[in-house]
What we know:
Elements: E1 7-13, H1 17-28, E2 36-41, H2 47-54, E3 59-63, H3 70-77, E4 83-88, E5 91-93, H4 97-107, E6 111-120, E7 125-126, H5 129-134, E8 157-160, H6 161-166, H7 180-189, E9 193-204, H8 212-230, H9 233-246, H10 251-269, H11 276-291
Parallel strand pairs: 1-2, 1-4, 2-3, 6-9
Antiparallel strand pairs: 4-8, 5-9, 6-7, 6-8
Helix pairs in contact: 1-2, 7-11, 8-9, 8-10
Keywords: Glycosyltransferase, Transferase
Protein name: GT2 family glycosyltransferase
GO molecular function, one term: glycosyltransferase activity
Amino acid sequence: MSADPRVAVVVITHQRRDELLAxxxxxxxxxxxxxxxxxxxxxxxxxxxAVRDRFPxxxxxxxxxxxxxxxxxxxxxRLDTPYVAFCDDDTWWEPGSLRAAADTLDxxxxxxxxxxxxxxEPGGTEDPIVAELRDSPVRGAAxxxxxxxxxxxxxxxxxxxxxFEEVGGxxxxxxxxxxxxxxxxxxxAGGWELCHLPALTIHHQASTARDPHKRRxxxxxxxxxxxxxxxxxxxxxxxxxxxxxxxxxxxxxxxxLAQALRGMPWVLRERRVLPPHAEARFAALEAxxxxxxxxxxxx
Length: 299
C-alpha cells in the first residue's frame, strides 16, 4: 500500500519518553507513512534527544515549557496536509485508519472531525466512552457517515486542518483537560459537523506517568469556563449546579473551583453564546453527561 500524503500526525508529550518512543515505533510503521510532528512540552527526561536519535524522520518541536493542548497548535502550524490526526504519547493509530479517515473527509466536505473507536491495551477491550460515542443523542446532518457528536476526543480524532485553523486551534486559556468542548462548540457554530466513525481505530495504553489530581482540577475548571463562555444562562446554571452536586468534596475540587472563579472576569468578558443550532448539540448531551460512567470527575 502506498503512502497517503493527505494526513499527518501531531503528537504532544510531556515526561513520557519510553511511552512516546513505543508509540512512534508504531506510527512510523503505518502503511500511510504519515508525516509525524512531535511537540515535546518541556520534558526534562531526555525525550527530545531520544526522538532525534531514534526517529530522525520525525519532525520535533522542543518547547522549553509545557504548553498543554496548545502544543498541538504548534504542530498543526508546521503542516500543509488537508487533514491532521492527533495522537497522545500513549496512543497509536491502527494501520489503515488514517487512510479511511482521509477518504471520509474527502467525501464529506462539511465534516470537520471524525473520532475513532478506542481500544484499551493490553487486551484490546473497548473504552467505555465508545458506547457513548456510538449511541450519541446529538442530531446532525442526514449525510453524516456516523453518529453526530457534540464534542470529540482530541487524542482519538482526525480533523480537517482548515476547520481547525478557522476556529483558532485550542484555547491557550484552557491549557489541557476537556479543551475539545470549546472547539467543538465553535466548529458547530461555524456550520461544521463532527461524527464518530467506528471504522477508525486507535489503541490506548494508559500511561502511569500522570497527575490525576491536577487533571481533575483542570477538568472542573475548564468545564465551568467552557460552560459560561458558550452556553445560554439557564443551561449554564443547570450544568454548574449539577457539577457542584456531584464532584467530590475535597481539596482537589476546591482547587479547580478556585481556579474557575479567578478566571470568571475574562470568561464573562469574552462570553459569546452559541447560536441555537450549536447549543442544541450541547443540550442533547446533558442527560448522557449526567449518567456517564466514563466522564466522572474523580481521581
